[in-house]
Amino acid sequence: MPALLFPLGLAALLAVVMPLVIHLMRRDELRPVVFAALRWLDPRPKPRQRIRFSEWPLLLVRLLLIAMLALLLARPVLTAQMSERPFIAVTPGLDLATVREGDDEVQLHWLAPGFPSTERPAPQTTASFNSLLRELDAQLPQGVKLTVVVPQTLQGVDAERPILSRTVDWRIVAGAMPAAQATATKLPVLSVRYAPDRAADVRWFRAVSAAWQTPFEAAGADAALPPKDRVLVWLGRGDVPPPVTARVKSGGTVLVGAQTVLPASPQRRVVWRDATGAPLMEAQGEGRGQWLRLTRPLNPAVFPELLEPTFPDQLAAVLSPPPSPARVEARDLIPVVGRSIFTRPSEELTPWLALLVAILFGVERLLATAARRRAAP
Fold it and tell me: Do residues 124 and 117 make contact, with C-beta atoms less than 8 angstroms apart?
């Protein structure tokens, strides 16, 4: 559907009077020819009162050029015309016999990437359910009624209820979605850098890596830092050196001991507590990475969790949190209205009009040059 982003630009169409005035004022050059019969002509002939334009092809090209320039200033766009019929989105895996509508005026599509018609087989998709809902809501015209047919249990959802720009007819039917493939949590790889007086504390992290069956590497505080994809365990005292701080800001994760001083931050939070609720580890972000800080020395007398067999699993849960649950009851995920109306993108025709204006200008110059050559004696 065509539209104008700047309709006031059409005011430039008033300039079409300029070529008309120029061509009215212009007259073909008249060359007197003397011959004997002139004495028999009326010396006072009546002039013909008729408006005549010279160089019609040139005039038409100039008028068209001005019209295209005005249209270019108005910035025309082309918006895809979508159907205003009610739209029904069916979750793949459901039996279409339970959702068939008697009205042929509805649009029946799968809730899958591209939203294919239900006349095709149900696609296998791993796309986020919430993302598909938001995309569909953005694509449909504002007045279109949207019905979403879902099973009793949904897979692959986000952690929050969808917020859309329209009220959705949420229809729950019997059936099930294909189960999402479980993704195993990747265990981190530890690299320790320690001060000479903290060498005894390295054994706890070596034991954790052995329980995880992951590579382990330890070196003095003066050694080069490990690759950024590893978790750096910094066992030092006092302030953290600038290279370690730069590592966190660039996206790394650094675990420090209780003796290390971190700058105060309002983002600091407790991420691990003991059985009594006392904090064992704090976390705070900086730049694109994060700091993790133990609140107690690595001593079983004050940190008895070091001797528990669940210590490696608890540390892994902090360093590599498990993915958020992606399965929820459909009745708990009914979308709510609260999102602003999405303006569908339009295709601007400015580049094509600019090309057309350039072509018309070239034709106008060619015709004008030819007219001057014909008028020359």
Answer: no
